[in-house]
Amino acid sequence: MLYLAKILPAIVLPCGLTILLLILGVTLRKRALSVAALMLLWLSSMSLVSDPLMRAAEGWAVGRPAASAPNAAAIVVLSGMLHPAPSPAGHDEWSDGVDRFEAGIALAKAGKAPLLVFTGGWLPWHADARPEGEVLRERAIERGVEAGRIAVTGSVRNTEEEARAVAALLRGHDAAGSRPLILLVTSAFHMRRAGLLFTRAGLSVTPFPVDFQTSAAPFSFMKVLPGADALQNTETAVREFYGYLYYRLIKRN
What's the domain count of the chain? Predict the structure, then answer.
């Protein structure tokens, strides 16, 4: 199911649809389908299109300093920041979303919660890799966070499993109240779906979005030129829309 969840959405994302339209255009000898494929690829690769899509996925949120966050029972930092580097020592490097880690450290040092929780992100196609939370725990200690204030969940493979694991962990730590308040730290585009799942898991969520993918740059001619970064943002935003709708409308439990 995990593999299907990663593969199936690709069919209806811009890249997958472009390939499908090209195949149909060649097979059926329909030039209009091939032209539509190229137009879809071009539009998806323009910042003029990807920026508003990404901002919508981010819920038009804005970044804020750690000092502005309320106090909570725990700071929860979601996985998705590391990848195993091509190294004989199995060294892990930052891939994306390092702002999640930095925000978690800042919130912990600001005294916003007694507990800093990292999730144990792990994927079967990186079977030999350590769960991400274990690596982040070591790096947080190196950054001056007391070891006794850090907790790591068991291995989890997606956001739904992260939510359930964190809820179980906090119950084990006797967090205050039947619905512990957490400061949820994740990429802004991922926050809407993550907040839904953590709320369903029985937690009260205060979002602390980071890792914003667009800038406040004014319009320029460069925004209509195709680019890989814009295409990636379009794909990420559309995938998040699909994921949120899936959990909101189909998988409600």
Answer: 2
